[in-house]
Design goal:
Elements: H1 3-15, H2 17-31, H3 38-50, H4 55-66, H5 76-91, E1 106-111, H6 118-131, E2 136-139, H7 146-159, E3 163-164, H8 172-185, E4 190-194, H9 203-219, E5 226-232, H10 238-250, E6 254-258, H11 268-276, E7 280-284, E8 292-294, H12 297-305
Parallel strand pairs: 1-4, 1-5, 2-3, 2-4, 5-6, 6-7
Antiparallel strand pairs: 7-8
Helix pairs in contact: 1-12, 2-3, 2-5, 3-4, 4-5, 5-12, 6-7, 8-9, 10-11
Length: 313
C-alpha cells in the first residue's frame, strides 16, 4: 500500500471511529459466549438499524450472518467480516469517480443546505484539481451569504483559482452566466459554482436553481456537467430526505458526504446508496484539505465495520 493510500486509510478509519465503535462494541458484547440464535440475530439487526444503515441493509446483513452459522458460536470478527462484505456489495456500484475531463470547461454546480460543508468542499475540490495541474475557476453563487463569498475568495487565493463574485444579494443566475462565459474565454478546465443553501421547503430558492441552470445553458448548452449534492453525515436520517428533495428539484448527479468524523451515524451513506443508487464521488472526514478524498467502497466498508487494516487495493 502506498504511503498516500495508508495516510488516507488512517484518516478514514479514525474518522469513522464513532460509527464503527457503535457497531463493533455492541456486536462484541452480543456474541460473547453465546450461540447464534434468533434473538441474537434480532439484536444484531437492531444495532445496524441504530447505526443508520437502513432497515433493508440491516436485514440483508443479518440474513448473511445467520447463513450456515445458526446454533454455533460466532466471533465478533466473523460478524464484522460479514458487515464489511455486505456494505461493500451495496457501495461498490455507487463508488464512481467524477470524470472532469468530459467537457471543457467542466461545469460543476454544487448544491445542499446551509451548514452541510458546501463552500469548504468547493475549496477542497479546487485544491485537488489545481494539484492535478488543472485550471480551476470558482463562482461564489451563494449570494445570500457574504461569509460564503469571503470564504471562497480565501480558497481562491490559497489555490490560485480565480473567483467570480458579486455583491451580497446579487442575482445568482447572472453570476453563473458571467462565470461560464469567463471560463470558456479563459480556457478553464473545471468551473465550480456555489449556490445558496437551499432548504427543501423553500420553493422560491429551488426555482432560483432552475433559473441558474436555464441561464448558464444559454452560454453552454451541456452545462452543468455535474450537480453535486453535499450532505452532512451528522444529520442522519434527514440526509435521506435531502437527497429526495434535491434529486427532484436540482437533478443531482452525484454525492459528496462530509463530516463523517463527527458522528456515530456514518451508516446513513449506506442507506442512501441502497435507496437512491446515486454515485458517491467524495467523502470527507475532517477539516484539512486532504480530508476529502475519492470514495472507495472497500475502504469505507472495512472502516465502518471497525477493522484496523485496509486491504492493499
Amino acid at each position: 500500500m502506498s504511503d498516500e493510500k495508508k495516510s488516507w486509510w488512517q484518516r478514514l478509519s479514525s474518522g469513522l471511529k464513532r460509527t464503527s465503535a457503535s457497531i463493533g462494541t455492541a456486536i462484541a458484547s452480543l456474541v460473547t459466549k453465546r450461540r447464534l440464535d434468533g434473538a441474537m440475530l434480532d439484536e444484531i439487526e437492531e444495532v445496524l438499524i441504530r447505526a443508520d444503515l437502513g432497515v433493508d441493509v440491516a436485514a440483508r446483513i443479518t440474513a448473511a450472518v445467520g447463513e450456515g452459522r445458526y446454533d454455533k458460536e460466532i466471533s465478533a470478527d466473523e460478524v464484522k467480516e460479514v458487515v464489511a462484505a455486505e456494505v461493500e456489495k451495496v457501495m461498490t456500484p455507487v463508488a464512481r469517480p467524477l470524470d472532469v475531463t468530459a467537457a471543457a470547461p467542466f461545469v460543476v454546480l454544487v448544491v445542499g443546505v446551509n451548514g452541510s460543508g458546501k463552500t469548504t468542499t468547493i475549496g477542497k475540490l479546487a485544491a485537488r484539481y489545481r494539484t492535478e495541474g488543472r485550471k480551476v475557476m470558482i463562482a461564489a453563487g451563494d449570494t445570500f451569504r457574504a461569509a460564503a463569498i469571503d470564504q471562497l475568495k480565501i480558497w481562491g487565493e490559497r489555490t490560485g483559482a480565480p473567483v467570480i463574485s458579486s455583491t451580497p444579494g446579487a442575482d445568482a443566475a447572472s453570476l453563473a452566466f458571467e462565470a461560464v462565459t469567463a471560463a470558456k474565454a479563459q480556457g478553464i478546465d473545471v468551473l465550480l459554482i456555489d449556490t445558496a443553501g437551499r432548504l427543501q421547503n423553500k420553493t422560491e430558492l429551488m426555482s432560483e436553481l432552475d433559473k441558474i441552470v436555464r441561464v448558464m445553458r444559454k452560454v453552454e448548452a451541456s452545462a452543468p456537467h455535474a450537480v453535486l449534492l453535499v450532505l452532512d453525515a451528522t444529520v442522519g436520517q434527514n440526509a435521506l430526505m435531502q437527497v429526495e428533495a434535491f434529486r427532484q428539484t436540482a437533478g443531482v448527479t452525484g454525492l459528496v458526504m462530509t463530516k463523517l468524523d463527527g458522528t456515530a451515524r456514518g451508516g446513513i451513506l449506506v442507506a442512501i446508496a441502497a435507496k437512491h443508487k446515486l454515485p458517491v464521488h467524495f467523502i470527507g472526514v475532517g477539516e484539512g484539505v486532504d480530508d476529502l478524498a475519492p470514495f472507495s467502497a472497500q475502504d469505507f466498508a472495512r472502516a465502518i465495520a471497525g477493522f484496523e487494516d485496509a486491504y492493499a487495493s
